[in-house]
Design brief:
Length: 272
Amino acid sequence: MVVIAGAVGTAGAAVLAGRGAARAGAGLVRVCVPDGVFPAVGALCLELMAHPLGESGTSWLDAAGVAALRQIHLPVADAAVIGPGLGRAPATQAALLELLTSLTVPTVVDADALNLAAAARFDWRSCPAPLVLTPHPAEMARLAGLSTAEVQADRAGLAARFAADHRVTLVLKGAETVVAAPDGRLHVDRHQTVALATGGTGDVLSGVCGAMLAAGLDGFDAAVAAVTIHAEAGCLVEAERGRAGAVAGDVVEMLPTAQERLRRALERRARG
């Protein structure tokens, strides 16, 4: 799978998304970042395949980067993640919109990619590939043209309507994360852990969701699996390290344990 992310000041988001995907079982993960942040990201991606995008020294996604993604990286991918730490440069917005309308693999859209698309009033129905959008409440407010308070007042209803109207799978993050499919399926995750209330954990979730898409799950099942595994990892971090001081990297490292716990629980249920 391919992670398209990172900019100056937010390059760590690309690493967290890539590591989240790898720890969730994606196998081979390409982390594609602007050329200007490639040295920093490459140094942190020992188990991942880091690739520079765009013109030499550029610090944002540009047209040359989109061309490389289309010609080199996406043709060999099973899924993609776009957005963590991508930044909001005007050139990035134009490149992103061009990329979204030509996607060929199931894709998770997160963070700055959501904000840029919302600012451009992008029509999600114009994307030819299945999409999973993963906004937090403020990002959801921008997508829907509402206030954050209005989003929080009707989380499940809004998620269901948006998913159906725009033909996407929607993951509305927060306490009791809501997953809504365009066909009406709805799931509310009941995990609650403060370990996920820290910067970068959303980037990890996008990577986990990308890994589930790469494994062949449809958007809704991939999102439900990712949210459950991610939340379980957060609970394990809280149980081991306490209720303060957890960082996103701690959640990444708990992903294999969380998956194995859930897998064994499902096996026990099947036998019973």
